[in-house]
Write a structure and sequence with these properties.
The structure holds two protein chains of two kinds. By secondary structure, chain A is an alpha/beta fold. Chain A has ten helices and 13 strands. Chain A has a six-stranded mixed beta sheet, with helices on both faces. Chain B is flat, with a radius of gyration of 26 Å. In chain B, strands 1-2 form a two-stranded antiparallel sheet. Classes of the chains: A alpha/beta, B mainly alpha. Chains A and B meet through helix 1, helix 2 and helix 3 of A and helix 1 and helix 6 of B.
């Protein structure tokens, strides 16, 4: 299978074991989220997949090729965008993308650059130097660099960091479209709400180890979740909640931790039965966030 | 490694370089200083000999050439000493490494851009050089050889600086070390040679036939022997060989001896009481060259042999080796990373 398959990847830097055994599968046509706390080994794993680091152990296949044995084959089919990257400040956006196209040995690099500028909504800025761009525009330009050779595998490390809400929505749509066109997309991110709407599968990593690999539509029901309750009058609500694990009330409502969906339904029934005029009862954070909190310590 | 890849990298580096600094000012200043110095030397020659000397261009060209080499050695380390680790610092190296450009493309392309820039500086010396050629005593062959030798020497220093930038994590460290390399090549070799020369001294005994007026075949005159100390420059000359100034002076083709016509003209003038000096004898390049060859000869030998093929060969080989190391250091995926170095 093409896409990305990694088994038992390990990599240490001197005494620091950054990755101690990560398994990951990313299918073509899908977006796979790579989720874990800072320092969990996400970036290191992506560097291994991006042909930059040799793993100490484990097998890796990217777009059907081994990044260590055949780096050039992988590079021809893989696009990578790191969490922190630089652009050549003295080039214009157009020149930058043309250079990237030439570095990828594209024949029609000029046409491709024009196409990507349009895709990134940077046509008006095309002939301005890169340092004149805003942060979000730079981020978009960097993403276009990774897309210059229309890769089958896309590795994005924190692509949404620092983007405004509109750009985040656009990024989501772009990645969905690329996946629909058949690319295997791996996104590492901390924006779980975004991922919930974007990803097809999720890989949880913690302390360099894969702790869970799930389809997003079949996430294991987290044992304990937080529910937020709002009622027309606060006092009866608080009275009725006595004995449950709840926080101090805020303007947003009262957060209650409940062990299961049944418990939530039961609590709501009880509240209504007691005459509390409840106006809303909803889980705080998505299923993804709940699973994340449970899997990572 | 492909030519196309090298050109892609070199063009890119060159564009960025030109747009980044105040190159026009720097080139203008470089040109102005060299022109000024050329004219000043020319004026000095005029003053010393009241304008009657032949081949006035010889001294001017020699002085100009040594100055160009000296100044260029001060400028070129900056062209490449922060090339690789600077890119890493700015976060543009890793994104280049994941393209289809090979490590060799990147290393040689960066080298070509820096070397090309230094050749632009060298080309700016052409107008003053052409002027000295009009002043006599500077044949075209000499200019050609000297220019090629300077270009090769600058290339070696640039390659070494580039290598340092790929080996060291911090741009300031590699910058300082590149200047130390230039210092070692110029001052270092000279001082080491001087010290080694002192250490090379040995006692020797020379035996010569004695002088006895009444000697005969049956009663031969005894040989007398003398003891003395001498330095053995022939054992330590190679310490001086990598010195760029030594290489340049020694490689510059020797000036042709005075022709009969020139001698006759000089003698004719002398009869009329006008004394004309031949300035070929005071050429700074030839003078340095003769001194160096003098060191490269066994005691008793009458002629020294050239030092520059060894020196230039050594420097160019080191440069090529440095490029090879740079390419190796740029190769990904990488197994070992220096402590504290991030990939991206």
């Amino acid at each position: 299978m093409d896409g990305v398959v990694a088994h038992g990847v390990r990599r240490s830097f001197g005494p620091v074991q950054a990755v101690r055994g990560i398994d990951l599968t990313a299918r073509p046509g899908e977006v796979t989220a790579l989720v874990g706390p800072n320092g969990a080994g996400k970036t290191t794993l992506l560097l291994v997949l991006a042909t930059l680091l040799v793993p100490d152990a484990g097998t890796v296949s990217v777009a059907g090729h081994d990044p260590v044995a055949e780096p050039d084959e992988v590079r021809a089919r893989m696009g990578w965008s790191p969490d922190v990257f630089g652009l050549y400040d003295n080039l214009t956006c157009r020149e930058y993308l043309q250079f990237c196209g030439r570095a990828m040995k594209l024949v029609h690099y000029e046409a491709r650059a024009a196409e990507l500028l349009e895709q990134a909504r940077l046509v008006e800025k095309a002939d301005l130097p890169v340092h004149a761009l805003s942060r979000g525009q730079k981020q978009r330009l960097g993403l276009m660099r990774a897309l210059v050779h229309s890769p089958q595998v896309l590795l994005l490390d924190e692509p949404a960091a620092g983007l405004d809400p509109r750009s985040r929505v656009e990024l989501r749509e772009l990645l969905r479209r690329l996946a629909a066109e058949g690319a295997a997309v791996i996104v590492s991110s901390h924006l779980l709400a975004d991922l919930e709407e974007l990803a097809d599968a999720v890989v949880f990593v913690d302390q360099g180890v894969t702790v869970g690999e799930h389809r997003l539509d079949a996430l294991p029901a987290a044992a304990t979740r937080t529910w937020r309750l709002r009622a027309l009058e606060l006092a009866p609500l608080l009275k009725a909640l006595k004995g449950t694990d709840h926080d101090e009330p805020t303007a947003a409502g009262v957060d209650v931790r409940l062990p299961s969906d049944e418990a939530a339904a039961d609590l709501l029934a009880t509240l209504v039965g007691k005459g509390v005029r409840v106006v809303s009862c909803q889980p705080v954070g998505g299923q993804l966030e709940a699973t994340y909190l449970e899997l990572t310590q | 490694m492909t030519l196309q890849g090298i050109i892609t990298v070199a063009e890119q580096e060159f564009t960025i370089r030109i747009r980044a600094g105040r190159w026009r000012w720097l080139l203008g200043a470089w040109f102005a200083v060299l022109t000024l110095v050329t004219l000043l030397i020319r004026l000095a020659v005029q003053t010393v000999d009241q304008g009657r000397a032949q081949d006035k261009g010889v001294i001017v060209y020699g002085g100009l050439t040594l100055l160009v080499l000296g100044l260029a050695l001060l400028v070129v380390p900056t062209l490449s000493a922060q090339s690789v680790n600077g890119d890493r610092e700015r976060g543009t190296l890793a994104t280049l490494q994941v393209t289809r450009l090979s490590a060799g493309d990147i290393a040689v392309g960066k080298f070509a851009a820096a070397w090309g820039t230094s050749l632009v500086f060298l080309a700016m010396t052409l107008p003053p050089v052409l002027y000295t050629m009009t002043q006599g005593g500077v044949p075209f062959g000499r200019v050609a050889v000297v220019t090629v030798v300077v270009a090769l020497l600058l290339g070696s220093v640039i390659a070494i600086s580039l290598c340092l930038s790929s080996l060291l994590h911090r741009t300031t460290t590699s910058g300082v070390l590149a200047y130390l390399v230039v210092f070692a090549l110029t001052v270092g070799t000279t001082v080491t040679f001087g010290l080694a020369l002192a250490l090379s001294s040995e006692r020797y005994t020379q035996t010569v036939p004695g002088y006895c007026p009444g000697a005969s075949a049956t009663d031969p005159c005894p040989y007398s022997s003398y003891q003395g100390t001498r330095t053995r420059a022939d054992r330590v000359w190679w310490l001086l060989a990598p010195n760029p100034f030594v290489i340049l002076a020694d490689a510059a083709p020797k000036l042709p001896p005075e022709t009969t016509a020139e001698r006759l003209q000089r003698e004719a003038l002398a009869l009329r009481g006008v004394h004309v000096t031949n300035l070929r004898d005071s050429d700074p390049l030839s003078g340095l060259g003769r001194a160096v060859r003098g060191a490269h000869k066994a005691p008793g030998a009458s002629n020294g042999s050239p030092v520059w093929p060894w020196g230039l060969g050594f420097d160019v080989l080191v440069g090529v080796g440095a490029l090879w190391v740079t390419a190796r250091r740029l190769r990904t995926p990488s197994r070992d990373l220096p402590l504290g170095q991030r990939v991206a």
